Amino acid sequence: xxxxxxxxxxxxxxxxxxxxxxxxxxxxxxxxxxxxxxxxxxxxxxxxxxxxxxxxxxxxxxxxxxxxxxxxxxxxxxxxxxxxxxxxxxxxxxxxxxxxxxxxxxxxxxxxxxxxxxxxxxxxxxxxxxxxxxxxxxxxxxxxxxxxxxxxxxxxxxxxxxxxxxxxxxxxxxxxxxxxxxxxxxxxxxxxxxxxxxxxxxxxxxxxxxxxxxxxxxxxxxxxxxxxxxxxxxxxxxxxxxxxxxxxxxxxxxxxx
Length: 257
What we know:
By secondary structure, this protein is α/β, with parallel strands linked by helices. It has nine helices and six strands, in the order H-E-H-H-E-H-E-H-E-H-H-H-E-E-H.
């Protein structure tokens, strides 16, 4: 590392401390959703492989959760794999699935996080389904940040699954379709979402400069604040995280007007 890079790193750390020192912890979001975008483009810019980019993105997760643990964040949702990702070439998808499975195992072994899967299991290999179930069971007692691992996740799919679950639940209770139609409301559908017992995201962060949700938590983000960051996910720094929190705290949250 040359002198210029050392000085730049020092300045960034000093700036991060300044931002952190002025952060109002009373205004920290309780639930943060993260669209971790840019692994492939980061790898391409570095002259490396896509698989290396996904591994670098996976390595960033532990660091990110560590930053969250220094605040009052209670829930973090990490979008690791969308339903659309299954259309990727097998030479990319198979290693990616392996990397994601390693992430889930590492989160469960850490001991600080309560792991919860959000997404459909139908598309996932049997081995990953087992890993997810095991991670949820072994961390169920952990009194730490709830980490939602969104794997095989799509916002439209979640709403469809919620409606299906609601109807099947009504059928099991002997409720007629007409009775369901009369009683259905926003809260009823919300209870059948993958995150039914959790607060909705207060803040959604998307890296890589893309400014769209791409179907991320369509129902739950109706009143969320969004923060779009230019850097690719593997290059996401603590100062970027703190800027997102500062930006969130500075906004006046208004519902419906």
